[in-house]
Amino acid sequence: MKDVETIKIESRNLRGTIATSIAAGGSRFDESDLQLIKFHGIYQQEDRDARTERKKAGLEPAYQFMLRSRIPGGVVGAEQYLVQDDIAGRFGNGSLRITTRQGIQLHGILKGDLRATVREINASLLSTISACGDVNRNVMACPAPPENAAEIEVQALAHRLAEHFTPTTRAYHDIWIDGEKIDTVGDPADPVDPIYGRTYLPRKFKMGVTLPGDNCIDIYTQDIGFAAVLRDGEILGYSLLVGGGMGSTHGKAATYPRAASPFAFVSAEEAIEVAEAIVTTQRDFGDRTNRKHARLKYLVEEQGIPWLRCEVERRIGRSLALPVEVPFDDVRDHLGWHEQADGAYALGLYVENGRVKDTDVARIRTGLRAVVERFKPQIRLTGQQNLLLLGIASADRPAVTTLLREHGIETDPGALGVRRYAMACPAAPTCGLALTDAERALPDLVTEIERDLEALGLAEERISMRMTGCPNGCARPYMGDIGFVGRSKDLYDIFLGGDWANTRLNWIYKTGIGRTKLADELRPLFLGWTHGRIASESFGDYCHRVGRDALLELAAEVPA
Ligand code: SF4
Questions:
Q1: How far is the CA of 360 from the centre of ligand 1 (A)?
Q2: What gap in Å lies between CA 208 and CA 480, rounded to an integer?
Q3: Which among 8, 137, 203, 297 is annotated as catalytic?
Q4: What is the secondary structure of 497-518 as a DSSP string?
Q5: Coil, strand, or helix at residue 9?
Q6: For 114-165, what is each residue's pLDDT tens digit?
Q7: CA–CA separation, 210 vs 357, rounded Å?
Q8: Cβ neighbours around 419 below 10 Å, total
Q9: Is 167 within 8 Å of 193 (Cβ atoms)?
Q10: Active site residue 431
Q11: Which protein residues are within 6 Å of ligand 1, measured from CB?
Q12: Torsion of Cα atoms, 403 then 407 then 413 then 419, to 10°
């Protein structure tokens, strides 16, 4: 099998033989094309729950596709949302998934329906290009309704960055939108991408923009984080943080999560130019021999910030100003009703693990659709997998609340307890890299933990919990109070000691704990926290202060 670098070089600007493969039919793409379709926002997956039965029956795996829309800052129009909902019903598995990077994923799409779905998404003026692949992914920004010029500008920069770093190849348009060209030749009118070149980046690349205080975009996990520096409420420029990233591999010490480091202060006018110089430095120096060691974070860790500064300064032809400290002390999830600056209202709605679907408990998909069709709100997706409905007239608030409640959708975040702060990646059965469940395991685990917190009088506490089905860390489990990371079937590593504002990595507490034992492992620590916390110290800060050894001793002393 060819390596990914060779596939990219030979792909003629990401064409490969995707169009030929679609014309030929079948249920899957070959090994090379399935690497290339990621750049088009598409992952080939299979229903892993059905794997054994199908194998026994002599059938091929149940191939299906995940389609991810790139939505800078998470801003979606009402009509655009309805298009995604329609596609989920007609071509997908009947659900939408809000991603931890403010995008939307549709699962369960068959190969023969891919072109129709991509066309419909593009006709709604959204796109799937570069939602995945070795390029700059969806650019995150605080989704709160803007109250001032600085908040508007943060969203605007996210959109400018997304536009600037979109691959220039016409392959996406030719394959999915025109759909008539068969890809036996490259398009001579399609020049080499000025930023990505022929080989694109060594690995994925992530950016996010935010204001001081509220770290709802997890700025320390970004390859480049743009933290606005304010004076008298106006944006003076941005302090850049570089080299954040979550992924690691079990048993490979050379791979690790990393919190981004302060890099430089740039004016608003310089922001994109400097970002491009960082991206092209990663393009030229990032490790192309080992994809598990290819993110910018390894370059930053191994070469150092001074080296990166020299390289970026050489590329832009001038010196960079030193970074300015931008404080973050909170993660606001923006849930509940909030008055906007224009007098209308925004409603932040909790969506468990970002999965918009109808269940016996709540018909979230149908209820949301009803509200969006009737009131036409702008929708903003959050980095915590929730969504905000903007622009609702004051007079419509009771009707919106009633309509949502009729569908079993909770509009009062105060009723959610600690569940409000939990998030999980999709993991099994769709993600090919999953070692175990996450989205399917976390809700019941949270119920157990809620029970324990209630018994200890801690039900009102804010504790963030993040679970992933493998160490790649898509739900950012290495930040926050508690992380659960899949190790193998129904076994998880427990991470503790992050902080509420996600400015500090947590650390491994125990490895290989069975799914049914996770709450048992935490119970004595919660008890220790109630007795040993200083003032209103958070659970993560308590664990960080006392350290792993003391927690292990505590757990050994206190019966579970
Ligand atoms: Fe898949 Fe792992 Fe990402 Fe979860 S963290 S979605 S299991 S790659």
A1: 27
A2: 18
A3: 137
A4: ---TTS-SB-EEEEEEEEGGGH
A5: helix
A6: 999 999 999 999 999 999 999 999 999 999 999 999 999 999 999 999 999 9
A7: 30
A8: 17
A9: yes
A10: yes
A11: 425-427, 431, 433-434, 438, 468-470, 472-474
A12: -170
